[in-house]
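User: hey, got a sec? need Gluconate 5-dehydrogenase folded
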Amino acid sequence: MASAQADVQLKDFQNIFRLDGKVAVVTGGSRGLGLNAASGLLQAGASKVFITSRKAKACEEACAALNALPNKAPGAQAISIPADSSKVSEIERLVAEVKKHTDKVDILLANAGATWGSPFDTHPEDAFTKVMDLNVKSVFFTIQKFTPLLEAGSSKNDPSRVIVTGSVAGIGIGTTNNANATPGYSISKAAVLHLARNLAIELGPRGILVNGIAPGFFPTKMANGLIAAIGGPESLEKANPNGRLGVPEDFAAAVVYLCSRAAGHVNGDTLVLDGGKMLARASL
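Assistant: Yep! Here you go:
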């Protein structure tokens, strides 16, 4: 009986998904999945969420919407710091600006990304370079430059978290053999998910857990063009075992989970958010 009682008395389980007082940085946070995640982080208790993307106006509008949330913690705020993550000098400036507000960062969501659709035979070099620079190089250096702040607030029992946004196109095969082919994007997302696995081993002993999320189709500004080109939302929903595409809560909840105590022993993993679509494709 005593053993059974010990087994069921889980430590503060009702708050296991809470992020009270945590400080987060979200790159690519002014729209789409990044903005969804920022909303989830604030509603889960984060005290500060720094929103960064290339366009200052978009960052300001995102922060205004986030700061109007009715159920965030008292005093919690979203803070706009525009920066072009494709440039290392801009990442360094971003870190310096964040330091003006805080002496630690608990959560880093490296979400900034770009895509380009073009046939393989005519895929332009500048487009390939742009996608690789933003989707891989910028993620590496964003994590590198923020590591001192991530270490500052971490401990063995309360590690900091890094999450990178990949894609199912980086696990299976992306769009091929048509005018909207995305070879550079698919390669970049495979690379960034493998980067997360490498950094999990590099940074885990330093109190930083690193994981990846691989979304399937979510209707966002970046994805909507491709969704329309390959049949539209209804066609994709019918082909999905879950019967629908991703919604904002799916991504936000996954980010909150990976940043919470609930995922305190998850490191170097990739969480696939596609409703089972990759498995359905493999079964054909």
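Quick note: Strands lie at 23-27, 48-52, 77-80, 107-110, 160-165, 208-215, 270-273. Let me know if you need anything else on Gluconate 5-dehydrogenase.
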